[in-house]
Every structure is written in C-alpha cells, then in structure tokens.
Amino acid sequence: MIKEVVTLKDKTTSLSVTNGKVSAVLRSNIQKTGVRLYDSNCLAIAGAIGAYREEELVKKAKQLLKFKLPYDSAPEEGARRSVDFSKKLELSDGAFVELAGNVLEALGKKYPQFMFSHKLELKEVEETLVNDCGTELSYKDRYLQLQLINKHRDSKNLMDGGGAVVSRIADFDKIVESLSLGCDVYSEKADFSEKGEMIPVVMLGNDVEFISKFVTDLKGDVYGSGASLFSEKVGQELFNKDFTLLVNRDAENKMSRFFDGEGVVLKDDCFALIENGVLKSAYTSKRIAKQYGLQVTGSAALVYDSAPDVSSGALAAAQGGKTIKELLGGRKAILAVQAAGGDFTPQGEYASPIQTAYLFDGEKLLGRLPQLSMRSNVYDMFGKDYIGASSDSDYPGSPFNYMAINMNVSKIDGWM
Amino acid sequence: MKYEFPEGLYTDVRIEHVFQTHIKYTKRDLQECKEQKYSAAFVRVYDGDMWYYASTSDLDGIQGEIDALAAIASKHPAIDKVPIYKNLSGHKDVVMSFIGREVSGVPLESKIGLLSKLMPKIEENKYVKLYTLTYLDNYTIKEFYNSKGADLNFDWQTAGYVARISMLDGERKMQCAYRNAGIHFGEIQTFEEELGKELGECQEFLLNSEPVEPGKYSVIFAPLVTGVFVHECFGHKSESDFMIGDEATRKEWELGKRVGGDELTIAETGDILGSGYTPYDDEGNKSTMTYLIKNGLLTGRLHNAESATDLGEHATGNGRAVNFEYEPLVRMTTTYIDKGSKTIDEIIAQTENGILLKDVAHGSGMSTFTIAPTYSYLIKNGKIDKPVRVSVVTGNVFEALTGIDAISDKVEVFSFVGGGCGKMAQYPLPVGFGGPYIRVKNMNVQ
Fold this sequence. Notes:
Largest sheet of chain A: 9 strands, mixed
Shape of chain B: globular
Order of helices and strands of chain A: EEEHEEHEEEHEHHEHEEHEHEEEEEEHEE
Number of domains of chain B: 2
Oligomer: heterodimer
Number of strands of chain B: 27
Strand content of chain A: 35-45%
C-alpha cells in the first residue's frame, strides 16, 4: 500500500468594494488535506478541511478501499521539486490594504462619474504532493488578484465595464489604468458599420471562450472514445501553422502549480496538444492515457479529496513573438472585454454575444462599441482566420496575453 | 447564549455541518467514490461602518475569531440605532425538514447500485459512444446565532444524478444530458421512461438535425428553458445589491413600472422544498414570497439586510453564501414565471415561423442574456417541422419581457444537482427555477 498526501493552503486578504469604498474585510486561512492510498490497482481517498490527524484520514481511506475505485497507474516516483515565488511580491498585508485604499481613492478622483465595485485580494497559496515513492512536490506563491467592475452614474446597466489584475508586481499607476479599463472612452461611441465583413476580435485572458471547443473535444476520454469532433485526427494539420495549443504548467509565468494532480511534471513544463496547426494529442491524466492508449499530458486535476480526473485548467495558446499591435498590423479590432454565454455546437459551429466591447488599435481603446454578436466555426477560427496569440499583456507580470481571431461580427440592438 | 458577543458591535455566526457524496462512472469504470463530512463557520462583525469577516474550520476557535474581529472593528456607541440593524433578525426557530430521510443514512452501496441500474438502458442505444454518470447528494445542517438573540437550526438536502451522453454516427456528433434530482434518495429511483425519451431525442438530433438559418424568430421556451430564462434574464436584475447608491438604476427599476404584459407574473421564494429551499437565509432572515413582477408590473426585488436598508425596503431572506468560506450576497432561491392561459398546443399552433427550445445547456444574463439550447425545433405554420442546431439565442432583457406574448397553463419547477448559480466568486449556489411554456417575439437565433 502506498500513501500519498495532498495539501492545499489558501490564505487570502479580501477587500469587498462597494461604490468605490472598502465595505468589508475578510481574512481567511484555509487548509485542505487529502490522503490517498494506492493498493492492488485501486485508490481510496479521505480528506479534511482544517485541522486533521493523519492517522484518522488513513483509517478512513482504508475503509473506502472496499469500494475498489480502479486506478492501475503507478503513483509518481522520485519526482522532487520545490518552487517558491511567494517572496517576489514585497507587499505586507498591511501595505496591501493601504495600496488598495490608495487605488480606490485615485479611481474616485480620476473617474468621479463612475462607481467601482467588487474585490481586491492578496492571495497566498501553497500546494504540495508527497508520497511514499519519494515524490515531494511543492508550489508556493503570493500575488495580487484585483477585479473591479465599473458603472457610469447615469447608466441604467448593471455594469458598463471592468478590469482585472493578476500579478506578483504591484505597480500603482498600472493598477489604476487596468482597473479603469474603458472609463476613458465611455462617452466615445465608436462607429460600427455592419457590412458582414470579417473583423479581428481580440480577447485578453478570457480567451477560454474561444478555446472551449478544445476543452470539450480534446478531453482524453471524449477523444479516445471516438466522441470528439477531432477523434482519429492526431497527426493531421487541422489548423493554422501559427496556432499552438499547450498544456502550460510554467509556474513562473502562468502563476499556477507546475505539477498536476497525479504529480506529473512535464518536460519544460509544457506539452503541445496542437503544434503549428498539427493535432498532436488529447489532454489526459495517467489513468485516461492508459485506458485509451494516449500520451500522458500532465492534465490531472488536483482536488484534495477526489480521484485525479482530467482537467483543462492548464490549456493555453502558445504566445507568439509579436505584440498585439504587430499582430493587428494597423487594422482596427474589437476588444471583447465580456463575451459570455456563447457556445459551440457539437459540429463546431460557434456563436456568442459580445456584451462589452471597445474599438482597439493594439495599444489603446478608440471608443466604446455597441453590443455585438460574433460567429464562426472552430476550423476557421483556428485555421484561416487565426491571427495569433500575442507576446504582450496589459499589465506587467500578468499570466494573460491577447488572442486575436477574425470573426463574422454583427450588431445587436442597443448599447450596454 | 452560545457565544459572548462584544458590546457596541453587531455579530453573527453561521455554522455549517455538511455531508455530501460524489460518485462518478465513465461507462462502467468507477472514477470517483467519496463521502465528505465537515463542519465549518463564517463569522461577521459590523461596527456601523465596515463589515469584518472570518471563515474557519475550527469550531472550537469561533469565540477567538469573534474576539479578533472585534479587536480591529471600532465599537459603535449605539449600534442598535444603525439603520441596517432593523433588517437583521433575532429569530429563534428549529426547522428540520429531512430528519429520517437524510442521505447520510443511505449506504454508499445503494447509491452505487442506483447508477448501475442506468447503465444497461443507456448502452442499449447503438449510437452511444461515451457516457458519464454522476451521483451527488448533500445534507447540510445550519446553525445561526447573532447578537440580536437569533438562534436557528435548520437543514437542507438534495440528491440526484446526471447522465452525460455522447452519441456518434460517422462524422455526426451529439451530446445530451439526462438529469434526475430531488430532495431525498427515494425520490430519484424511477428513470426508465424519462431516460428513454432523452435517448430517443438525442438520437433524433444526431441523425436529423440541420444548422439553423440565423435570424430573428418567435421562440417558444419549454418549462426548463423558461426557468433558465427567468433566472438569467430577470432574476439577476432583481438582486438589488447592484442598486446600492445608484440613483440611475433605481429610477430604471422603479416599482410599479410596466415591464411585461398583463399575464406576466414572476415569483421568488425560499419556501419550496427543492434545491432552492432556504427557510432562513445566511443572515438569519426568514424566507418570504416575493412577487418580482405581478400582472406585468414591477412589484418587488430581492434583498439582503444591506440592500434592503439602502433602498428603504425590507429584507426578503435572499442573503445567501455558497459555503462557509464566503459572505452572504443577494442571491435567488427558487424563481419561476407563474402560469398563463393557453395550452402548449395552442401556442405552437399559433406560431407561424418560430423555434421551440426544449432543453438548455447553459444560459447567462446581463443587459443581453443568452440561452445555449440542446434541443431546438423549427416551427413552420403552426407545426413542429424539424430539429435544428442552434448555438445561442440572445435578447435584450426588457425587450424579451415585453416580447412574451403567450404563456401556457401549467408550471413546472425544477431541482438540480451538479451545478448552480454563479455570482462574483461564489459558484455553484443551489437554486431552483421553472415556469410554463412561454413564447417570446423577435429573438436573435444563431
């Protein structure tokens, strides 16, 4: 019997913001622990929130072994690595509260006609996976997670825009700039002439909307069972040569754990599922890879008290060498700040509204656009219409970059 | 008194004792099998200016958390005169609705056995390529205490399963889901007929669906879709925390304003036993029946103590938190459109060129709301013509409400497991929703 212990610690100072002022302070410090027992090709897990006694979790897990949850992959052996980025952000809890107050004051002075609300958080996370086979993996980080939505005082909407910062760098001026995204051009209504032409649509950080077909259809069991749109197409050049889709576990740049829920550490912390347009693999856990004869891609979720299931959490388009301005090459684009609720059909057709959009030249916002809708299909989006994933972001140290795709865009009646 | 609450401050303590089960199969391979049991608490202190929160899994340390929060708050000389104080209640009550039928008392083997019974039925269909079966239950007992003397003890429960099915015929793909959820284990034993219908419809779509011609249509929502619509399209706008300090929005949402036809009534209550059941909210306020729209007029909105105070109204029992790690926000419980006067057959017969949405994958709501349907049918000249594939249906909230021109005469309200409502970082909060069939004019269909 092999024992494996997973620990997830989350310490957060969270400031709730209402109408531009801190209305509540939450300090939380929560630890979740899971004990996994591997025995005779079976797995049992017992978990606890907060204080725990390991022998009790072991006893509980032993009781659960009778349900014979099959797990015929070996636990990771001898993987040892510890990564600690928690000292990179030199900002005490007290200094964070002061910074937040100063940011809100600056926003209030610069944009008195706007109301800002939501959360400003300082997060400290520590995640470890240790087992009897000599594996000891540890990731520790500390970063700002700031998100404000804004609303013009005369507006009848629930929100008019919003900005977010996730970074280990506390740059006051850039924070104010990022969190007030769209405020400067709120009154600048940009022209949108509906001619049925293809227009570059740019997303920043929320491009998961764009890649959601890969999330569903490159999932190992969906692919392996033949139920995917891409089943049996490994090796085929299906997409644009500039498009590469990674399982990206680069902890330094993506600000997330470098190992997956089974303790798998990828070579160079990356695995290409699509490389230069060629489909290379579905994403898998060890269990799914073995079941369907696929490669292990380090894509098991790490949930403290669950069996490792396949997770799309680390999927991201590989950044290219060009900035978003260079990618657009002088064309004006639509920066889609909010594009929620759309979807792909099983056949790969895609449509989505764009609730909050700005005209964008790759450097600055040129005006506010009305509500739009966009449509295409997965092969065109990542084939002939793919423009690229940028090398830059809107904030220093951000894990997010821009993605641009030519889409068929039309106007929905009305403005946000 | 269970805790010593400091003078000059308002304090409350919410304790959650949670039991939950999660079992998952991919085809016949067991992939998850766990029971989870924990107790944890959320503590709030208010000093008349700011809230101070702490969440903890150490129940023995709650008094310490109260004292630590009190130490950083500023005592108010007349905290009982602070406006929000009157919207925080001191109820004493015990409401245990599930004693004797707790899912924690059902052996894990029985839950596994139930899923095993579904497998042969699914595998009968030759087009099924992959399926997952997920069983989820949750039995939670909540305790609530505050410095106004509140002493509450109540329970909440759901049980259910979801079958997610992928069908394949050559290059054609189709995914669908069969859900069965209730408030106790005995309620979810029967599935044969409904699962058979789901498989049949999924197969029909796989073999015969065509891409929809994008455009504007009259769209008929089946009761489940109506539920998603009312939740996403209107329910979120009724959560009045977004109106705090916001004069423009208050004017826009002034009570008494006409927002729909005479037949349109939308109600919200935590009293319906189901996934949205909330006899008391997470601020200790009792559930109410709130008519958000009555006969087409805006008549009410949802509140927690803070929003009710800011708008000069009463708390409605809608201050809810997803779990012990979070503070209560204004959230829905069970929301539904009330019945109208036509039969569904009459509504279809009176539709010249429309789309019928029978099921839904997901929805979202802002000024523009979205519905991503699973099964959609083209209606031509009053008859269902053929299955069509629709990515998304979108519309403007107010235009959609005023665009409802037919409401059927029967209401269905649904419970769920395996998902819920998201707001800010708090997801998934269990809610219920439903309604009758409704027809909405002039919707964008893509």
